[in-house]
């Protein structure tokens, strides 16, 4: 399983991983893996012919409460009763040796595996020692009832013939020999020392010893091998348009359905379709795509040529190539326009410097970047990047923006010193330059209309580098004609191209460019060269793991900060307790045996030295796939509250974070038994949406979608427990807040601007240095 997941790095952090176990026996493997990787594996199909074994598998799955994740199907792996492209992984352990025809089995595994998926199995294989006779190999196969007896090279060739790529053999024959030798040693010891007991047949033991000796001899002679075969199913791509520069594919796991040189079978349907901005993809086109298509790559920044709702309904993911290059080019281009527009520079073309009469007041009506108000509609990548560049040149420039209230970003506002204006009319009335930087959709068509243009000040201008239809062309023409705004700089228009006789061409305060923001060969090349990495990233096709390393670096930093903060605020307990963050198929966690005030990012480990830590954290992650970080502490106040019969009581405003969100667990001694995990998981599941587990007479755990959320919750939980104890200590009559008040406060506490960690984390990180 670990090898399989290393082949599928893009699925390590998923919560919907599915695989089929071909020749699954009693289902013990599936049960073990689902229990251990419950946060990742959502469905296992155990396919097996033996009814008795299948009944055992069904009973075991039911006993472990895993029937909803493990399906047991009575069928042959030579005729799998499922549609194609169903599973991330086809998996088998020592079962194919009994197949009548290996090629049929491998072909069936290929059929049901998803594009980019893996095929991994271990099996006994024919030896390839040239000194062995054909007769000797045939006798072994006949005595052991082996059909289609293939050696590793033949198996690799057969897997490739059915379509698999990157087929590799890992020789584990030495491990098998060691296993036989250990068994021989044990049997020999029993026979020599007479410890066989009254119920053991010595003749049977001697026959068993002789059989093991034969197997060891056969291994040494190379009669058979044992090991792992692993392979990947390729991904099929279709380029539906001519690329601006040649598309050079270097990954052999990506095949072009249009190129005969890549030996793609006629009629092979694509999994990936590549289009450009000129290729319109309305609902009819999307619906007509083959059912095999799951990724649509567009060589563009805009998406208005694609019906995204139709893609979503069909389960197709849309990605944009060249996005970073396009973003950077548009940012640079727009920044120039802002400065030139504010300075009225376009109207200075051809204006001669006065031969006499020049003074300091000549032609200085323009505004500087530092003294203006810039208004932005939208807050996507281009908008945020542009604002960051403006801040480098003019740190104190007033920048205001608007987006729908539910998309307001408080983190970005704080980081980039932005002001949020809810109403577009108010935004327009305050600015010197208005920049619509939103995408084009039904809600943004003619967003900048006569009313909004009428709100602009006479000295203000508008710059449009988004989509022409975002601005009402007729209304803009009228505003420029009447001089109610100073200027318009348009890199895009509607219609596009603008008719030759359109009045905007003749306006001396309108400057029209030919949708030119990204017209460089750098962008054209990136539109094409980004296609392969996008496909590789989506399917995990041997791409660089730079992104995952970057994510791990951030997690390590946040976790180290959280440990240092815990020590700084006297919430630690020497080297004990633990904080973790989910990453890949496991989690980064406290290393143990180190004071928390000295922990650095490199100290975090993927497996704790404390078995209790692994049990508690794995239980919470298995119960809550949405949880990304867990902190377990024994702080004084929270531990004291865990000893109270009434437990935690939300009685203050701060405790609104925890109102109706605290689950409880009856402590059952040191959590060092893996059988305790289901009980812990059930406790977390018992309170829907909980963020805290109060472990009676023990301590507590807080968890959330990030390290910052989990830590800040833990800090506030300890404070709330301390307040509760002080109130109890004073002996006065407790005044409880009204239920309705607490419900409203609880709801407000998770609004974007008040959610735990949103306001606090950056400031907290500033208190910690790893120098």
Major β-sheet annotation: 7 strands, mixed
State the shape: globular
Number of distinct helices: 25
Q: Can you list the strand order of the major beta sheet?
A: 3-2-1-4-5-7-6
As a whole number of angstroms, the C-alpha radius of gyration is: 33 Å
Average residue pLDDT: 91
Number of strands: 25
Derived structural class? alpha/beta
Helix content: 25-40%
Written account of the structure:
The protein has 25 helices and 25 strands. By secondary structure, it is of the alpha/beta class. β10, α9 (283-288) and β11 form a beta-alpha-beta unit. The protein is globular, with a radius of gyration of 33 Å. The mean pLDDT is 91.
Q: In a nutshell, what does this entry contain?
A:
37% of the residues lie in helices and 18% in strands.
Features:
771 residues; alpha/beta; seven-stranded mixed β-sheet; seven-stranded parallel β-sheet; 25 helices; 25 strands; 37% helix
Layout of helices and strands:
Blueprint: H1 2-7, E1 17-22, H2 28-36, E2 41-48, H3 51-63, E3 70-74, E4 87-93, H4 102-112, E5 113-126, H5 134-143, H6 152-161, E6 165-171, H7 173-193, H8 202-221, E7 224-232, E8 235-239, E9 254-256, E10 272-276, H9 283-288, E11 295-299, H10 308-314, E12 317-320, H11 323-342, E13 373-377, H12 381-393, E14 398-402, H13 410-416, E15 418-420, H14 424-430, E16 433-436, H15 450-455, E17 461-464, H16 473-481, E18 487-490, E19 510-512, H17 521-529, H18 531-539, H19 546-568, E20 578-583, E21 586-589, H20 611-623, E22 629-633, H21 636-641, E23 662-665, H22 677-685, E24 692-695, E25 699-704, H23 707-730, H24 739-749, H25 761-765
Parallel strand pairs: 1-2, 1-4, 2-3, 4-5, 8-9, 8-10, 10-11, 11-12, 13-14, 13-16, 14-15, 16-17, 17-18, 18-19, 23-24
Antiparallel strand pairs: 5-7, 6-7, 20-21, 20-22, 22-25, 24-25
Helix pairs in contact: 4-6, 7-8, 11-12, 11-17, 19-23, 20-22
